[in-house]
Amino acid sequence: MNPSDRFPDSGENDLPRELVDLAKAIAALPDEFQSDLEPVYSRVVDSVKRRRRILALVQEALSQLRLDIKYLMFDLEVTRKERDELRERLN
Predict the structure, then answer these.
(1) How far apart are CA 20 and CA 40, in angstroms?
(2) How confident is residue 3, by pLDDT bands cut at 50, 70 and 90?
(3) How far apart are the first and last CA of the chain?
């Protein structure tokens, strides 16, 4: 793993400050220790990125659900009004 992999530049892939600090600490270690820690660090970074993607998907799904509920509530209200109007016409 090269150091540029540990320090991503893109804004959306920013890692938590603690992970960046950990990467810097790993980079400061002797090579023999770095080689032991880098695979573990990579797994942690992958896990953080995966959790962020999952969180984004869940947030998007919740937003869509809220919108769907608003539409359903509107439809329900209109249907009730139509029902009441029809009852009045029949009576």
Answers:
(1) 14
(2) low
(3) 79
Rounded distance between C-alpha atoms, residue 75 and residue 15, angstroms: 43
CA gap 77, 53 in Å, rounded: 36
pLDDT value, residue 11 = 45
pTM, rounded to two decimals:
0.67
Per-residue pLDDT, 10:
44
- In angstroms, the CA 53 to CA 59 distance is 10
Listing DSSP states for 20-46 in one string gives: HHHHHHHHHS-HHHHHHHHHHHHHHHH
Distance CA 66, CA 26 (A): 44
Q: How far apart are CA 45 and CA 16, in angstroms?
A: 10
d(CA 50, CA 56): 10
